[in-house]
Amino acid sequence: MLVAAAIFCLKRKGLRVLVTGGAGFVGSHLVDRLVARGDSVIVVDNLFTGRKENVMHHFGNPNFEMIRHDVVEPILLEVDQIYHLACPASPVHYKYNPVKTIKTNVVGTLNMLGLAKRIGARFLLTSTSEVYGDPLQHPQVETYWGNVNPIGVRSCYDEGKRTAETLTMDYHRGANLEVRIARIFNTYGPRMCIDDGRVVSNFVAQALRKEPLTVYGDGKQTRSFQYVSDLVEGLMRLMEGDHIGPFNLGNPGEFTMLELAKVVQDTIDPNARIEFRENTQDDPHKRKPDITKAKEQLGWEPKIALRDGLPLMVTDFRKRIFGDQDSATTATEGQ
Amino acid sequence: MLVAAAIFCLKRKGLRVLVTGGAGFVGSHLVDRLVARGDSVIVVDNLFTGRKENVMHHFGNPNFEMIRHDVVEPILLEVDQIYHLACPASPVHYKYNPVKTIKTNVVGTLNMLGLAKRIGARFLLTSTSEVYGDPLQHPQVETYWGNVNPIGVRSCYDEGKRTAETLTMDYHRGANLEVRIARIFNTYGPRMCIDDGRVVSNFVAQALRKEPLTVYGDGKQTRSFQYVSDLVEGLMRLMEGDHIGPFNLGNPGEFTMLELAKVVQDTIDPNARIEFRENTQDDPHKRKPDITKAKEQLGWEPKIALRDGLPLMVTDFRKRIFGDQDSATTATEGQ
């Protein structure tokens, strides 16, 4: 009887969920949704690119906790689900210390998989469209093996994530762990790092600061841009669903860099100038998800068009760049 | 004066060389050459696939030392050069514990790169033709990025080695470490593991045991086979030379599995039967090195033809399988 009572005590109403990298751009939006639905959420973040400001609005909530911890070191927690997002995701950040990036992707993922195995939690890896490299197939389906340079300056991220996927599947095959793999395509929205060198944040920050928009190469390389709430919805459906993946999560709407510059001009400043610069090494020429699999198996597809999502991000960037009085940290528009 | 004398004491005639995986098939032949030229050689090996028997003939030599150690754990040593070979290399062995294979390739390489940086040693990574996966270019040049499945059952080795290459280049770019990268193609010779599932050792052992030679698929997939002394010569030229690589080290002579079976029949037993079996997943269809770069920059090319090298391996296998009195451990024919 005492044992039964004790076990009964362990039962909780909502799920206990760990979000590594939960103070980051995508992570913090995911945390908002999980907290809103009544889960107990633990964020583990070393705050290398994450920001306390992104989750501070949950600090008074007993169902929320933030631990300053680097996933390269093991940690013991008791949860039901692990969303593993921890890793710098923009070239500026992941190239800063390439060896650390690989450690985060490989040793960090190993630690979180080990934790998931120990406590019987379901594990979701946020991988990336970068596993396709500079793709020779267009659009990219999940069965495409990719075209990645193993010894280039981006490889710390690309190869690191590919190895993280391998580890995830090896734990699934070898230890029967419940795993999920998402391959995330370009995402934008409020709380994005302002100076991370990514094209959307670059253009928006430049237009707001009255600087010219810098386009690399001829501006004809394409990207697809997904609003962050669409991605968060996809991640949660993937975690709750029955399929392992990998699943492409991205918006198949394809824009050239020049088209994107035009949308930013239309949204912020019609007089913004465009400046061309030499392209960086290894920059993929095109990237566009085939999301047939996610549509069929997760019933998911993005809902927010670029011209609708961009203004929501601009509002947040304006507040953070110009220090408006209204706090930007609770920006949840469009979700 | 005392300091000068102390430093003078530290000077040695030959080089101090660390060979990780030095008790393995390739490693032990490399050790033989290094010891023969007067180097002080330290072997680090966990003996997972390596065998003490392969290096026991050096045990009385003061210039030789073997340490039973797993490179997944750090180790501190003082040497001038590090040949980093430690990793199970046959599918049977590297699939045995895929997570451990990734740890060996990533954490093991990290540890050895960290050691090299600390002591200012030159570091050579033995990578693999597996980084090309199931190649869409034939033959493979070093600039080809490969066609590797990130989530398959071979990925622990393929992706692990790709990430090891990335780490090696990141240490070179970031810490100015002197590095060398070799991409090794199929190699055979005395001291190869007898039951490692590789096609040459399989066929030779089967023919000797009067079992049918098992050919997977239609037998038309091709491989190139390099005799171990040719590889060792290439590794040493690469280490001593001025070029980083990656360099393909392999024999461009291309054989189908059926042609190889024929050579084995001619060498061992003309009456050996051939048996066809279903192919394994992810098995590459063809693999053949373009060695132009190694020829031009290292002045290296293989010298031993398959019909000349195979009998040397057969002699060794015969001794080990049938337990002949003559020791097989000093087999250095053909070097």
From TrEMBL, chains A, B:
GO terms for cellular component: Golgi cisterna membrane. SUPFAM superfamilies: NAD(P)-binding Rossmann-fold domains. The keyword Iron does not apply. Residues 18-311 form the NAD(P)-binding domain. Pathway: Nucleotide-sugar biosynthesis; UDP-alpha-D-xylose biosynthesis; UDP-alpha-D-xylose from UDP-alpha-D-glucuronate: step 1/1. This is UDP-glucuronate decarboxylase. Belongs to the NAD(P)-dependent epimerase/dehydratase family. UDP-glucuronic acid decarboxylase subfamily. The keyword Transmembrane applies. Pfam families: GDP_Man_Dehyd. Catalyzes the NAD-dependent decarboxylation of UDP-glucuronic acid to UDP-xylose. Necessary for the biosynthesis of the core tetrasaccharide in glycosaminoglycan biosynthesis. GO terms for biological process: D-xylose metabolic process. GO terms for molecular function: NAD+ binding; UDP-glucuronate decarboxylase activity. Its cofactor is NAD(+). InterPro entries: NAD(P)-bd_dom (IPR016040), NAD(P)-bd_dom_sf (IPR036291), UXS-like (IPR044516). It is found in: Golgi apparatus, Golgi stack membrane. It is an enzyme of class 4 (lyase). Its main location: Golgi. It is a single-pass type II membrane protein. CDD domains: UGD_SDR_e. Keywords: Decarboxylase, Golgi apparatus, Lyase, Membrane, NAD, Transmembrane, Transmembrane helix. Its EC number is 4.1.1.35.
